[in-house]
Amino acid sequence: MSTPTSTRPVVPAGAEPVAAQPVPRRPARWLVGRAGRRSDDQPPRGIVSDAERRTPVVRVALRLTHAVVLVALVVVGLGPILWLVKASISTTQDTLRSPMALFPSGVDWANLATAWSTVHIDLHFANSMIIATGAWLVQLVVATTGGYALSVLRPRYGPILYWLVLSTLFVPAVVLLVPLYLTVLDPPLLGVSLINSFWAVWLPAGANAFNVLLTKRFFDNLPREIFEAARIDGAGPYRIFWSVLLPMSRPILGVVSVFAFIAAWKDFLWPLLVLPDPDVQPLSVRLPTLARSIELDVLLAALTISALIPMVLFLVFQRTFLRSAGLSGALKG
Amino acid sequence: MRTWVRRGGLSTLVFLLPLLVIFGVFSWLPIVRAALMSVQQTNLVTAPEFVGLENFESVLGDPLFWTAVQNTGLFALIALVFGYPLPLVLAVLMSEVRRFRGLFSAIAYLPVVVPPVVAVLMWKFFYDARPDGVFNTILGWVGLGPYQWLQSADTALPSLVLEATWAAAGGTVIIYLAALLGVPAELYDAADVDGASIWRKIWHVTLPQLRGVLLVTLILQIIGTSQVFLEPFLFTGGGPANSTLSVLLLIYNYAFGSSLGGDYGAATALSLMLAVFLAALSAVYFWLTRSWSTS
Amino acid sequence: MRSIRKTATAVSAALVVAGLLAACSSSSDDPAAGGKTAITVVSLKPGSEQAAFDAFENQVRQFEAANPDIDVTSQEYEWTGPTFTAQLAGGTLPTVFTVPFTDGKALIERGQLADLTEHVRGFGYADKFNATVLQSGQSDDGGIFGVPTAAYGVGLHYNRTLFAQAGLDPDKPPATWDEVRTYAKQIAERTGQAGYAQMTEENTGGWMLTSLTYALGGRMQTVNGDKVEATIDNPGAREALTRLRDMRWQDNSMGSNFLYDWGTINQEFAAGRIGMIMGGSDIYESLAQQNNINPADYGLSVLPLAPGASAGLLGGGTLAAVNIKATPEQQAAGAKWIDFYYMAKYLKQDAAELDARTLAESDQPVGLPELPVFDKATLDQYNEWIKPYVNVPLDQMRFFSDGIFDQDLAGEPTARTQEMYAVLDTVVQAVLTDQGADITTLLSTADAEVQAIIDRG
Asked: How far apart, in whole angstroms, are the C-alpha atoms of residue B92 and residue B95?
């Protein structure tokens, strides 16, 4: 189970049989199809046939709707973000009095610097990164080792264990909010509260059945012969894991990584509960507190910085992101 | 024992160790604990006391419980009205784009990447109810408003849904888009041979092919919206006058809302009720897909 | 053989990881690092300006210099219900923390505060406190578990600049609730800002409704021996809500935001977007430290009290307490910190001067009007000591300092106070956001709900 209210995709019961199909190893290039290029991956056609496309009415209508869709997407999807960027370099008074005007009293670049240093966005940004990276690592370790054991090593108790893991998918994260909190307060064996320690976010993030499901499925579809060959060559289970399995698993590791990173970056309620000390709080937890005290222009600058970082990451790794997003649909379907 | 080790039993266990420890401590144990706590009264200071179904009774007897259930149901309903057909229409239109589809997808998906807390704080400012507020200014250009947005019990909940839809719709669009582009071309070819119009193709080929994914997103959306927390917590704190109090916010309030120690029993009891509801939804979904795939 | 060795390596690697885990998680403070007693204390509210934190750290250093065997770490802190519960349950409260008067008794009953009686006796002022003020930090048998560090009365804060812009005299704050209403209307009409606003969220709505009800002669609870009766449906509360409704819906003088808590209303007020608010008399410190208020804007007056013996001024305050989980050494050190940081200044000239000088050097407010936690003479003496360092516009607060001692101070309701406030939040929000809200029904429903909460015990 991932941390409560994280936005990891939930796979309901029926996903099991459908999702048994192999995870697409070729990136779904058609999703991000490059401008004007028709690659082999692009589907030959959609709803509108080539013949229909050639008729002027359809052609104009298509062009027009696409223009409308693009404008709507830009206004609705991009608009708020552009406004935020504008507001982050405007003065408070401008933003309050005429929020839609462009810099009536000039550009105020200082907001960004103030947000970054004085209200310590840098510190909380670093915390967010540490939290996301740690959660990502823990999830990768649990998913790959667990998936490997269940899929390749196959102990006799494996199916029961797999069932136990999958069954946690049906327990909504919220049920665990309070008991998980109490567990973190007084974890078994450790004897020390994990409150205010990053481990309190990292470790529960690892209990993500969706990741185990994804990796096990992926490993299941790898050709057995490779492992057999490696074994005959004298490779032990560790060597096979490290030198054979992992190098072949890059696509699925990418997908799990995107899910893990996004979920950790977005999580709010759980870190809010277990990280009461402001010095270790990530951006998502710190920003609402700051919103109550710092001036509006600085707050909006802080929000801009916090929004731009993941957006830049998205634009750089667009392919992996969209593939994961589409994949979550394929798995769900 | 020796043979077990030689057969790799031990190394298998080593590989399973992270999974066993992490799931054991942070998933299985808390699940058991939740079940236990729901029939106990505990404030973490004195020893827990077995109270049977009292926690469930006190939750069911709390007028706020019914308010929260109503609000959450309404949230889910409005979210469906806003957020269900729109991404589908968008995806169908986008699937016919041949150039720059990447640009379309990227812009549609962009709001999903914005951290939810940032989105909520930003929208909270958009919803400023002064005539100078962002939305009121924009609507003022076409002679509408000013509206109360978060400041009225009638409009607060829809306002939360609007933001939530903005933040999530892009993800749904991408899922539909993936499904749309997977529709076999032969089906369209066959329809063309029959002389079907574009509309008929959408109605008789596209939508039936999307049936599975449509149902899944429907159920997923209901499951997701039943757990809405961030929006009411950050936008309104459940107000005005409890009009945006959600089930999850009520759970949070039970557990952490009073300064003198939480009612963890009531919190877990309500959590379990929500869990049963969600499990029932999953079961309905399972049954539906089963009966479809066999027919 | 090889694989067994490898297995052993893997197992030991796992153990190392587990050890790392334990090491990292136990990095929380060790009570006696290097022979010193380590304590954590609460500092200032989150988001306070750097100079304020600097001043605080200076005081920490002064304390450590005077007590070389104590090591103080500070933690920013703002008392809110949810975070406090989580910290209480999580055992992450600092050694020294503060709670409002209303929570003192219940925390003592639940055994969550350390007994400070001996320490306070040692400081020599256990018997000097104002008896009613001390009560909220005392157990039933008179032990001191919470030290009252500051007391406030609810006052009327107003923006002098907005008053002037609206054609009102900033030196004539409203003296009746009718005047509050007409002033608010005038401010709203002439400046376009909210004339008057009121807190409604996170239990502050109930707190302020109770203040207004007190001022209009009503009371929310009556105590009969052991039995507490909720009297929320009283004429004072009805009048309070009716006045709010009229200002909101007839005059439209309350602006456009009706979801305010303590922090957000202060923020808006300091930014010059609200004409008048009710609030504890001590908020100027936070307005200056957190919200950068322009001192020239600020005015403070007493809350208008309706004529008649029953009208009273709601007051409250802050208790400093020591974590029950602290070791005896830490408890002693914590008590010393309470004495040093919060209390000594009221009784010792050198302490008063040092405190005032340190704050003034960092441009932090010195000399705000306070209500006495000891007696009035002591407070007057203290104000005399710090006079050279006063850096707040005391003159703009004279209507409060001059008038407050003529008002009858009434304590907050005692039974399940915060939960009652939570119920009342909803009532106030309903009146301010729903034009058709029926005040009588709202009050009688709330009355029944609160009675049920009290009876549940």
From this structure: 5
Tell me the one-letter amino acid at B111: P
Segment B243-247 long-range contacts (CB within 8 Å, at least 24 positions apart): B243/B71, B243/B153, B243/B154, B243/B156, B243/B157, B244/B71, B244/B156, B244/B157, B244/B160, B245/B64, B245/B67, B245/B68, B245/B71, B246/B68, B246/B71, B246/B72, B246/B75, B247/B68, B247/B69, B247/B72, B247/B274
Query: Is C310 in the same domain as C205?
Result: yes
Q: Does an H or E element contain C148, and which? A: strand C146-159
Q: Which residues of A touch C261 (CB under 8 A)?
A: 292
Tell me the pLDDT of chain C averaged across its residues.
88
Enclosing domain of residue C105 = 33-151+316-389
Mean pLDDT, chain A cut into blocks of 10 residues (333 residues total):
36 34 40 42 69 87 91 92 93 86 87 85 90 94 94 90 86 80 84 88 92 90 89 89 90 84 84 87 90 86 89 83 66 39
Residues C172 and C320 in one domain: no
Query: How, if at all, do strands C146-159 and C194-197 pair?
Result: unpaired
Strand partners, C279: C155
Average pLDDT over residues C40-47: 85
The pLDDT of residue C335: 95
Q: For residue C75, report the phi and psi dihedrals to the nearest 5 degrees.
A: -145, 130
Question: Are residues A180 and B26, on separate chains, in Cβ contact within 8 Å?
Answer: yes
Contact C292 A273 (CB under 8 A): no
* Separation of alpha carbons A42 and C375, rounded Å: 84
Residues of A in contact with B261 (CB under 8 A): none
Tens-place pLDDT, residues C153-175: 999 999 999 999 999 999 999 99
Q: Is residue C21 part of a domain?
A: no
Q: Which long-range contacts (CB under 8 A, 24 or more apart) does C327-333 make?
A: C327/C31, C327/C32, C327/C37, C329/C31, C329/C32, C329/C37, C330/C31, C330/C37, C330/C38, C330/C39, C330/C95, C331/C95, C331/C114, C331/C116, C331/C119, C332/C37, C332/C119, C333/C37, C333/C39, C333/C67, C333/C70, C333/C95
DSSP assignment letter at C97: E
- For residues C144 and C180, membership in a common domain is answered with no
In a domain, C1, yes or no: no
pLDDT above 60: residue C307? yes
Are C323 and C304 part of one and the same domain? Answer: no
Name the pLDDT band for C250 (thresholds 50, 70, 90): very high
| Fold topology of B55-294 | MetI-like fold (1.10.3720)
Residues C228 and C105 in one domain: no
Q: Is residue C7 part of a domain?
A: no
- Domains held by chain C: number: 2
Distance CA C304, CA B210 (A): 67
Question: What pLDDT was estimated at residue C157?
Answer: 97
Does C84 contact chain B (CB < 8 Å)?
yes
Contact A289/C at CB under 8 A: yes
Class assignment of domain A119-293?
mainly alpha
Asked if A314 and B94 come within 8 Å (Cβ–Cβ), the reply is: no
Domain containing residue C200: CATH number = 3.40.190.10
3-state secondary structure of C412: coil
C277: in domain: yes
pLDDT band, very low/low/confident/very high, at C31 (cuts 50, 70, 90): very low
Nearest CA in chain C to A138: C17
- CB contact B103 to A (< 8 Å): yes
- C186 & C299 share domain: yes
Where, residue-wise, is CATH 1.10.3720.10 in chain A? 119-293
What are the tens digits of pLDDT across the range C378-411? 999 999 999 999 999 999 999 999 999 889 888 8
Contact list, B5 vs chain C (CB under 8 Å):
4, 7
Do C443 and C382 share a domain, yes or no? no
Question: Quick one: C126 and C160 in the same domain?
Answer: no
